[in-house]
Design brief:
Blueprint (H helix, E strand, L loop, with lengths): L5 E9 L3 E3 L9 H11 L4 E4 H6 L9 E4 L11 E4 L2 H15 L3 E4 L3 H7 L5 E7 L7 E2 L8 E9 L9 E8 L2
Parallel strand pairs: 1-6, 1-7, 3-4, 3-6, 4-5
Antiparallel strand pairs: 2-8, 7-10, 9-10
């Protein structure tokens, strides 16, 4: 927790750990995008610069915090810039309290996920039943530190490339 606000990672990852390829997701999962929207709506979202730049537009209804080492980065209107993950999480926690929510959502990319995993309280992981090629991966989830609190198998819908298994992980005490 950061100042009483839960740090939540939201990610879709393939069996081989791949989460991205050339700045995009290596699949189309409409069902999972609906879950993603429901999980993140109204909550501050924290992401790296490349992840922000990969979005077609800002995610409505969610304050954006972008983490970048680039001191000259010109953020779009509605985006707060932080120069470390710790600063980004602190800003997001303040925004969460202002909005009356108790979670902030970390949305990637790979380096941000690696830094955030030791700080996270919850992981919303969509396990994609595929092994695509990619250049960005999610770190291993150590079973001695995490327990699965919920698991739902989701068959591929007509607008999904693959079946998925959604798991909610909770940090062990």
């Amino acid at each position: 927790m950061i100042d009483g606000v839960k740090v939540v990672i939201v990610v879709a990852k393939a069996r081989n750990g791949v989460i991205g390829r050339e700045g995009d997701m290596p699949w189309r999962l409409s069902s999972d995008l609906r879950r993603f929207k429901a999980l993140t709506m109204g909550k501050p979202v924290v992401m790296g610069r490349k992840t922000l730049e990969s979005l077609p537009k800002l995610l409505p209804g969610r304050p954006h915090v972008v983490v970048t080492r680039n001191a000259g980065f010109a953020a779009p209107d509605g985006v707060t810039v932080a120069h470390s993950l710790e600063d980004g999480l602190a800003i997001a926690a303040r925004l969460a309290k202002e909005r009356g929510v108790d979670e902030i959502c970390v949305l990637g990319g790979g380096d941000i996920y690696r830094q955030a995993l030791p700080l996270a309280d919850l992981l919303h992981v969509t396990h994609v039943e595929a092994e695509p090629e990619g250049d960005t991966t999610f770190p291993d989830i150590p079973p001695e530190r995490w327990t699965v609190g919920e698991e739902v198998e989701v068959p591929a819908g007509e607008r999904d490339d693959h079946a998925t298994v959604y798991r909610l992980y909770r940090r062990r005490a």
